[in-house]
């Protein structure tokens, strides 16, 4: 009788062991399955979403295969159940276990938004409106209202944000991006203002920002920035009008069709430096740090003019006679390229 009981217990133990092994194998196969992805895909876990709901959402999104053993995952893999809300980038060949590990660590995907040097505030708003997974807190606000919300002292926001690439995660807002860009611009501007050359014809850091925006629009060549800056500084010192085309274009606004005509140069606007003396009232674009540095530490030169060379750079001149000669050479270069 004892032998029968012993055999029965042994049979039950073997059966239970085999059953446990089978269940373990099934849960393991489920948790180690690769995600059904051919290319990277964004997946969002909303705040308050339970572990089981995450698995259901992955199944409903056809990212994993369903299983009858899904409810046992929590028991066999408790270390993977504490997931953090956020937006994640799922890569092909990632297993479910690896994805859950990323959810647990909170490795949210970093989105990137890039603002190019020389772009305008209007263009920034368009970029922000089309950015993915970004909350829109500024929609419907005027430029002045946005400035007030950001705590800026100027109602015209052109030039008040540093142009570069900013990263953000799910739940960030357009306000967050602009606040960071404004704070970063102020830090950079303050640093270069403190290290500026002596006796510059600039009354404030804001005037330096205005000049930097003009430099930004005039050249994208790093080696030319300080020389371009010297031309404008020299003209300001001599009380000559800056006569820079980008200010004319900015003042024309939506009327600009890609061409500047003689009548446009003669038509007064607050920004037309062919008709006004000194700097325009505000920046005309978002400058990068290199242009801010050039505005406050220009090259020491006697140049008063520059014109495009036709080969990507500019020709700088000290006299009007030299400048007119360079203009004729540029026009000749244009005709030969046609």
How is the topology of this model organized?
Layout: H1 2-31, E1 41-45, H2 51-60, H3 73-76, E2 86-90, H4 96-105, E3 111-114, H5 121-130, H6 143-150, E4 165-168, H7 174-194, H8 205-218, H9 225-237, H10 245-252, H11 262-266, H12 289-296, E5 305-308, E6 314-317, H13 320-337
Antiparallel strand pairs: 1-2, 3-4, 5-6
Helix pairs in contact: 7-12, 8-9, 8-12, 9-12
Uncertain spans: 9-18
Number of helices: 13
Proportion of residues in helical segments: 40-55%
Structural class: mainly alpha
Distance between the termini: 109 Å
Query: What can be said about the biggest beta sheet?
Result: 2 strands, antiparallel
Number of distinct beta strands: 6
Number of domains: 2
Question: What portion of residues belong to β-strands?
Answer: 5-15%
Could you give the order of the helices and strands? HEHHEHEHHEHHHHHHEEH
Q: In angstroms, what is the radius of gyration?
A: 32 Å
Arithmetic mean pLDDT: 89
């Amino acid at each position: 009788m004892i032998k029968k009981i012993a055999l029965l217990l042994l049979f039950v133990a073997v059966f239970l062991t085999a059953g446990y092994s089978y269940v373990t194998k099934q849960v393991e196969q489920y948790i180690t399955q690769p995600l059904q992805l051919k290319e990277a895909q964004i997946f969002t876990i909303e705040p308050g979403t339970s572990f089981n709901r995450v698995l259901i959402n992955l199944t409903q999104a056809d990212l994993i295969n369903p299983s009858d053993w899904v409810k046992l995952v929590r028991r066999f893999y408790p270390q993977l159940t504490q997931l953090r809300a956020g937006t994640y980038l799922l890569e092909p060949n990632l297993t479910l276990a690896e994805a859950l590990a990323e959810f647990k660590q909170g490795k949210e995907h970093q989105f990137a938004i890039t603002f190019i040097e020389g772009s305008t505030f209007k263009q920034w708003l368009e970029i922000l409106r089309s950015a993915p997974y970004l909350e829109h807190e500024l929609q419907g606000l005027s430029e002045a209202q946005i400035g007030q919300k950001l705590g800026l002292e100027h109602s015209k926001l052109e030039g008040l944000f540093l142009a570069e690439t900013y990263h953000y995660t799910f739940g960030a807002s357009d306000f967050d991006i602009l606040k960071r860009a404004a704070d970063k611009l102020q830090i950079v501007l303050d640093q270069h203002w403190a290290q500026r050359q002596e006796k510059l014809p600039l009354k404030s850091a804001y005037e330096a920002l205005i000049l930097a925006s003009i430099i930004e629009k005039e050249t994208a060549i790093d080696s030319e920035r300080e020389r371009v800056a010297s031309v404008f500084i020299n003209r300001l010192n001599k009380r000559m009008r800056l006569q820079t085309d980008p200010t004319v274009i900015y003042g024309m606004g939506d009327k600009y069709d890609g061409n500047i005509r003689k009548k446009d140069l003669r038509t007064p606007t607050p920004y037309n430096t062919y008709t006004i003396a000194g700097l325009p009232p505000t920046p005309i674009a978002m400058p990068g740090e290199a242009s801010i540095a050039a505005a406050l530490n220009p090259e020491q030169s006697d140049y008063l003019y520059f014109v495009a060379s036709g080969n990507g750079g500019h020709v700088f001149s000290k006299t009007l006679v030299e400048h007119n000669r360079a203009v004729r050479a540029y026009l000749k270069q244009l005709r030969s390229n046609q």
